[in-house]
Structure formats: C-alpha cells, structure tokens
Design a protein that fits this description.
The complex is a heterotrimer.
Chain A: H1 2-20, H2 27-45, H3 49-78
Chain B: H1 2-25, H2 35-46, H3 51-62, H4 66-98, H5 104-121, H6 127-142, H7 146-160
Helix pairs in contact in B: 1-5, 1-6, 2-3, 3-7, 4-5, 4-6
Chain C: H1 3-22, H2 26-46, H3 50-75
Helix pairs in contact in C: 1-2, 2-3
Classes of the chains: A mainly alpha, B mainly alpha, C mainly alpha.
Chain lengths: 79, 161, 76
C-alpha cells in the first residue's frame, strides 16, 4: 500500500517539474520519470496478468512519443 | 510500516546499482543512439552538466534500456512470478526494436532483474517494493538535479574507460 | 480507487490540460498532451477496462506523431 502512495507522490512531483521547467530539452527527463511512475502505478492498482501488457504498451508507446518529439526538436534546433 | 519503508529504500539502492552497472557496461554514455538523445545531452551540458552523462540520460529517455527492463521485470514478477518477468523481457525487446535500438542493454537488464527480484522475494522482500524502489532510483537520476546526476554518471563512465 | 489517489491523478490530468492550453512553445504543448494522457490512464485501468487502456496508450503516441508532422511543416 505504501508503495502505491510513494509512486503517486513521485508522479505528481515529476509532472510539476516537467510543466515548470523553462528549457524544452530539459523537460524530457522529467516527463520520463512521470512515465516510469505511471507505468508502475498501473500494475500496483490492478493485480492481473493483462495489466502487465497494458503497462508495457503504455511505456513503449510513451517512450516512442518522447523519441519522436525529441528527434523533431533536434532537427528544429539544427536549422 | 517502518519495515516496508526500509525495504523500499533497500530495493531502490539495489535496483540503482543494477541498472547503472548494466547501462555503463553496454556503453550507453558513449554516443547518442538517435538525434533526440544528442539534443537532450547538449541542453543538459548547456545547463552546467557533463556531456557523456547527459548522453546516457538522453538514451534512457529515447529508448527502453536497462532501467525500463528493471521496472517491467519487477512488474512481471509482481503479477506472475518468473514467467511474467521473462514476458516483460520479450516486450522490452519489442519496444527496443520499435525505437531503432539494438536492444542488448534492455533485454539483458530485464532478464537479470527478473532473477534478482525473484531471489529477493525469497528472503522477505515483496515485488511491489522493487517497483517503488525502481521509481525512486530513476527519480534520483532523471528528476532531482540534472547537473549533479550527469556529473556523477560521467565520472562513473570515465572509471569504466 | 482510494480518494487521495483520485485527487493526485486528477490533478496531473488537469495540469496537463491547462499547460497544453497555456504554454507557447509547440514541443512543450506536445509534452503536456503526454502528461494529460498519463493522468487519465490510471482511471481507465482502475475500473478494469484493460483493453481500452491498451488501445488508448497505443493510439495516443500515433496521434502525437501526426501532430508533429504539422509542427514540422509550420516551422519550415
């Protein structure tokens, strides 16, 4: 039970840091911490084998999203 | 109550050592896997950090590496024991292939973490302790201070070289 | 779900929505959309709709990639 509270507290902290950071490139690590925390809390909320697939799908999807945004950001910085 | 908190802190230290060792062994701080990782590393260096440590942080953001493998393996052991952990390793490998990464670090980290977490569940830890511990470990790397974390990772990388 | 967790995840979703509306930088807007999705997903999983959660977490990045194409075209 304490694990779920710890993970939720880290999630809200990371979301606040990601929104309040001024530099765009330094927002990505905070958003990554939020992804870790939410993927962990999904499994802790509902103890069922398919939840593992849901957490993995969420994690891979959000990593791909961050990858695409960061690559476009790198292309925009070069120009 | 207090025992569970101590278990979570011990699990955080164990998973921190595990994923940093695997990542540095597979040479993540050496070069950015995709252009986005390099851009994040340059922004961290502009804020006063270290370039090779920032490259490792960018690689963690841009593709599922050993840290993601440790988290998902702990989740797999929590829901289904050792088969769940190995299924999580398979999903980390698929995610690595989607993100244009060879996938050695993530898969190795997931398989190692499966056995480590299962071994610690035999001596009194719960698998949920390792989920919370892994989230705390990634918070200390990516979420508290990019400057100090990247300098620490850069120092570890120069020791390995 | 426990009441405190409902408040926490609801706050994350609301903060993501507000910052997606208010921030000026296009990349910051897209990151805020990701925060919005991650705040909404635990509510879906908590009710047990795991298939809906899998589909939502796979569709959200794809829609972000489509929006990125528009961002790239607007910059050039």
């Amino acid at each position: 039970m304490i694990a779920l509270y710890v993970v939720a507290a880290i999630a809200v902290f990371a979301a606040a840091r990601a929104i309040l950071e001024r530099n765009t490139g330094r927002r990505f690590p905070y958003a990554n911490v939020l992804n870790f925390a939410v993927a962990g809390s999904l499994v802790l909320l509902l103890d069922h084998p398919i939840t593992l697939i849901a957490a993995a799908a969420y994690f891979v999807g959000s990593t791909l999203e961050a990858n695409a945004i960061a690559s476009t950001y790198a292309g925009g910085m070069k120009r | 109550m207090l025992g569970e908190i101590l278990h979570i802190l011990a699990a955080a230290i164990i998973s921190w050592i595990l994923f940093v060792t695997v990542d540095i062994f597979f040479g993540l701080p050496e070069a950015g896997g995709v252009s986005g990782a390099t851009a994040i590393a340059q922004d961290i260096e502009a804020g006063g950090g270290d370039l090779s440590g920032g490259t490792m942080m960018g690689n963690i953001v841009c593709s599922p590496d050993a840290s993601a493998g440790t988290l998902l393996a702990a989740c797999g052991v929590y829901v289904a024991g050792i088969p769940g952990g190995l299924a999580a390793a398979l999903m980390v490998y698929i995610g690595n292939r989607i993100c244009h990464d060879p996938g050695y670090a993530g898969t190795t980290g997931a398989v190692l973490a499966t056995f480590v977490v299962y071994g610690f569940t035999q001596v009194g830890f719960a698998a949920s302790d390792f989920i919370a511990g892994m989230v705390i470990a990634i918070l200390t790397i990516q979420g508290l201070s990019h400057t100090h974390a990247s300098r620490l990772l850069g120092r570890l990388w120069r020791i390995r070289e | 779900m426990i009441f405190e967790l409902q408040v926490v995840f609801g706050l994350i979703a609301l903060a993501g929505a507000l910052s997606a509306a208010l921030l000026k930088d296009p990349y910051a807007k897209l990151i805020a959309l990701g925060i919005l999705v991650s705040g909404a997903l635990p509510f879906i999983v908590d009710r047990g709709y795991l298939d809906v959660a899998i589909v939502a977490s796979l569709i959200a990045p794809i829609s972000t990639i489509f929006v990125l194409m528009a961002v790239r075209r607007a910059e050039t």
